[in-house]
From TrEMBL, chain A:
Topological type in the membrane: Peripheral membrane protein
UniProt keyword Repeat present: yes
Protein name as catalogued: Sugar ABC transporter ATP-binding protein
Top-rank taxon, per record: Bacteria
Domain ABC transporter, residue spans: 30-265, 281-524
GO cellular component, one term: plasma membrane
Region ranges (Disordered): 1-23
Compartments, record wording: Cell membrane
MF terms in GO: ATP binding; ATP hydrolysis activity
InterPro entries assigned: AAA+_ATPase, ABC_carbohydrate_import_ATPase, ABC_transporter-like_ATP-bd, ABC_transporter-like_CS, P-loop_NTPase
Length: 538, 367
């Protein structure tokens, strides 16, 4: 950690929280000064400051592991700070619980909506502070109050409807409405847009603008740079647990911002341009699926995967892209269809069968289906290999150490400590460990479902580069991502999914994002793509 | 790539010294509690004997009749059943499970062994004892397979799945013994509980032997890591290719086997079996021992050494109560206090409160 700090080419060391022109500084709603937090040996935050002004959208920027989440949790009383001060409205505070922070007017809306789906919208908004009447809850007053708040935010939602009946986006807006109802002075939105589509994002921004006009300070965390530039006024940039700079968004180009965030040249991102460089020379597919289907998740789908080829799977959330991956790996079992791996018919009843056939799969749900939080980095990395060897044949200590050290270096995992607990790593680093887990098993087919979701640009570039390198060495890779640019950049062949089936498959010759969007929207050249599909299968 | 060389060195420098490591060890509090009990006993005994003009030291061990003799030897011997049951329970709990049926399994083991002995051609023969114990343990393995089947294959919640056998098992033991208290006469069998080898109690040797076996199985192979992985995140483990089903099944069989050994030792101690009372509530003592030892009921990381200390603690506590002049019926009350204390020590909120209080207040840091 310290080394990156020293090697930083940009002279940001002297900058501090006082870097903003004095002309436009009203009294901050909240000022965090020199906050430090340490977990075990890991310094998560090192003297970081943050100022939030009334009526602004303040973007908190940084790679994964930069300390954004930690800073937010320090502000909301989830973590206790080791040193530093938090000044709210001129008074020094030390929040030891989330409730204390909330009482001071700081509300948080987390990435995952944590409301109660089987209560009504109004009940959720006023949970824990329902208007009372004769010892019971005054339902009418509650609905009235909820309706008033929703109206103020310009949201057309029936307060009496069940929360769970609404799509995630609406639930998220309800979560924000709940935050606003507490008379929040500060609203923290941690990755609120990661599961929203464009319309929904616009609706969210509309709500944010209204709040800003009301003088609320909004902390906004998002990995989408375009969104930052659309909505945010100022930003604080963190890197490796330190403050890099506080800046006006309007005065910063995207390139500058990215450089400040990752602190190194962008060449990692630029270098990778392998799209369509691969020539199919193989005759025999690694994997061939015919009519693969599963009730409720995937309709009959054909797919062929070849050595040394990256197949990108594009499609919206719920289009069947994850379901397809799970069937190819045996994470779910297929109802119908056949699967051949290296020309041998296989029925995959469990992931184990797939792993034995040299297939690897990294799930989109890192937390629930990937990370073993309480084990070390080393154990997490070696889990799949150890599982396939069986418990009676432990990996020899020397091999263990070598493998783990190699992959920590190759994937630039931080902290570079094999004995660090997985839970203490940032999302991007956890993702790299999971990638290492599968690379260690030396698979012939690697299925990556959203390997770069929610991780920073630096880690993203590293993972993309690794994928390209692996395919270059002959591995067959299935790359699934919601980010079309990423899919297009990496894949040799493109599979487009919609409504739980494959609607198109084509070589990636100069396919553009708008081409793919057209295909998804149903305006694609269906006939042309089908012939392409036929040829590629033979 | 020079930066990859520096961090390890820097981290090594920052690594806490031996003193800090002891303070941070999860075994610290169980061991301190155990030592505290020993001190209380020592004082109580010294005071008691001083009143009669004698001297006695709690930790005294002397050789009598060719074997070691003393309070701590007694405790080691008496703790064997609970230690055995707790040992199996540790691994089960590590997989997010629990086994309520171990008491019943112990009773069945005792019942099977005693009825086989009584029915043997020569009740006193060494071979009869060996055969009887083998039968009993084989039955226990079957019962463990049953529990494991319910949990790992049918996916029934462990607490419910093992409740079946907890209730039915005692009935089974009653059937085996015809509802009678069966008394046996076999020196080899009773040596399980009261015998000595190399001056050490056989029961303790068996229990410690099993601890060593478990430690080797889990820490010298990859079993421990896989058990922990399954306990921490079953779905992620499955997707990584871990045979969760086999592992869960194995720990229930191991748990039942340990419970069977405990049942044999308990039966041998009285040379009889009462299907109604043998090993009654021992599952709760075992769970308590596991928790005192620092293995969380939520599964995941486990500590066999902790369980050892936990079992010793519970047995020592049972002995301390009469030693300090409190009627032994009050034992339950003190166990309850221990449970509360353990819960508090494990509660994140209580820990946070302790930590805040312990941290020195920074003086004039911002002035």
């Amino acid at each position: 950690m310290t080394t990156t700090h020293e090697e930083r080419p940009v002279t940001t060391t002297t900058q501090n929280a006082g870097g903003v022109p004095a002309a436009q500084t009203p009294e901050p709603v909240i000022e965090m000064r020199d906050i430090s937090i340490t977990f075990g040996n890991v310094r998560a935050l090192d003297g970081v400051s943050l100022r939030l002004l009334p009526g602004e959208v303040h973007a908190l920027m940084g790679e994964n592991g930069a300390g954004k989440s930690t800073l937010i949790k320090a502000l909301t009383g989830v973590y206790t700070i080791d040193s530093g001060t938090i000044v709210v409205g001129g008074e020094e505070h030390q929040f030891s619980t989330p409730a204390a922070a909330q009482a001071a007017g700081i509300s948080t809306v987390y990435q995952e909506v944590n409301l109660v789906p089987n209560l009504t919208v109004a009940e959720n908004m006023l949970l824990g502070r329902e208007p009372r009447f004769l010892g019971g809850i005054n339902v009418r007053a509650m609905n009235r109050r909820a309706a008033a708040t929703l109206e103020r935010l310009g949201l057309d939602i029936d307060p009496r409807s069940m929360l769970g009946d609404h799509p995630i986006a609406i639930q998220q807006l309800v979560a924000i409405a709940r935050a606003v109802d507490v008379e929040a002075r500060v609203v923290i939105l941690d990755e609120p847009t990661s599961s929203l589509d464009a319309d929904e994002v616009e609706k969210l921004f509309e709500v944010m603008r209204r709040l800003r006009a009301d003088g609320v300070a909004i902390v906004f965390v998002s990995h989408f740079l375009d969104q930052i530039y659309e909505i945010a006024d100022r930003m604080t940039i963190l890197r490796n647990g330190r403050l890099v700079e506080e800046r006006m968004v309007a005065d910063t180009t995207q390139l500058q911002l990215v450089q400040l965030m990752i602190g190194r040249e962008l060449e990692a991102l630029e270098r990778l341009d392998r799209a369509a460089t691969h020539q199919v020379t193989t005759t025999e597919p690694v994997l061939k699926a015919v009519g693969l289907s599963r009730k409720g998740s995937l309709e009959a789908t054909d797919l062929c995967l070849y050595d040394g080829e990256v197949v990108g799977v594009a499609g919206l959330l719920g289009s069947g892209r994850t379901e397809l991956a799970r069937l190819l790996f045996g994470a779910d079992t297929a109802d119908n269809g056949t699967l051949e791996i290296r020309s041998a018919r296989r029925r995959l009843r469990s992931p184990r069968h797939a792993i034995d056939r040299k297939v690897a799969f990294s799930s989109e749900d890192r937390k629930a289906e990937g990370v073993i939080a309480d084990l070390t980095v080393a154990d997490n990395m070696l889990l799949a290999l150890q599982a396939s060897r069986g418990w009676l044949r432990p990996i020899p200590q020397a091999t263990r150490n070598r493998l783990v050290a190699d992959y920590i270096e190759a994937l630039d995992i931080r902290p570079a400590d094999p004995n660090a607990l997985m839970r203490n790593l940032s999302g991007g680093n956890q993702q790299k460990v999971l990638l290492a887990r599968w690379l260690i098993t030396e698979p012939e087919l690697l299925i990556l479902d959203e390997p770069t979701r929610g991780i920073d640009i630096g880690a993203k570039a590293q993972i993309q580069a690794k994928v390209a390198e692996l395919a270059g060495k002959g591995m067959s890779v299935v790359f699934i991502s919601a980010e079309l640019e990423e899919v297009l950049r990496l894949s040799d062949r493109l599979v487009v999914m919609r409504d739980r089936r494959k609607i198109d498959e084509r070589r990636n010759h100069d396919v553009t994002v708008s081409d793919v969007l057209e295909i998804i929207a149903g305006q694609g050249d269906a006939a042309g793509s089908r012939t392409e599909e036929e040829t590629s299968r033979d | 790539m020079t930066d990859t060389l520096t961090p390890p060195a820097a981290e090594r420098a920052a690594r806490p010294g031996p003193g800090a490591r002891i303070l941070a060890s999860p075994l610290l509090w169980p061991v301190v509690a155990l030592l505290l009990l020993v001190v209380i006993n020592t004082l109580a005994l010294a005071f008691d004997f001083a009143g009669r003009g004698e001297t006695s030291f709690f930790l005294n061990v002397r050789i009598q009749d060719g074997h070691l003799y003393g309070n701590i030897i007694d405790i080691a011997r008496n703790s064997a059943p609970v230690l055995l049951v707790a040992l199996g329970m540790t691994l089960i709990i590590a997989t997010r499970g629990i086994d309520l049926s171990v008491g019943a399994i112990a009773a069945i083991a005792g019942a099977v062994a005693c009825t086989r002995l009584v029915g043997a051609a020569d009740e006193g023969a060494v071979t009869a004892a060996i055969m009887a114990c083998t039968w009993a343990l084989a039955v226990c393995v079957l019962l463990g397979l049953w529990n494991g089947f319910l949990v790992a294959v049918l996916g029934i919640q462990p607490i419910l799945a093992t409740l079946v056998l907890m209730v039915a098992g005692r009935g089974l033991a009653m059937l085996v013994t015809d509802g009678q208290i069966t008394t046996v006469h076999n020196d080899t069998f009773s040596d399980l509980a009261t015998g000595f080898v190399l001056g050490l109690p056989v029961a303790s040797l068996i229990a410690v032997g099993m601890v060593v076996v478990a430690a080797v199985l889990t820490r010298r192979t990859a079993l421990g890591m896989l058990i922990e992985a399954v306990g921490i995140n079953p779905e992620a483990s499955r997707l990584a290719g871990v045979r969760a089903r086999t592992i869960i099944w194995t720990v229930y069989v191991f748990g039942a086997f340990c419970a069977g050994l405990a049942g044999l030792i308990i039966a041998a101690n009285t040379n009889s079996v009462n299907a109604n009372s043998l090993g009654l509530w021992i599952e709760l003592d075992a769970i308590l021992a596991v928790v005192i030892g620092g293995t969380a009921l939520t599964g995941g990381r486990f500590s066999l050494a902790g369980t050892l200390v936990g079992a010793l603690f519970i047995t020592t506590l049972a002995r301390t109560i009469p030693n300090v002049g409190i009627p032994s019926e009050a034992n339950y009350l003190f166990k309850a206090v221990v449970v509360v204390a353990v819960c508090l020590l494990q509660s994140p909120r209580a820990r946070a409160a302790l930590r805040v209080r312990r941290r020195p207040v920074p003086k004039g840091a911002h002035s």
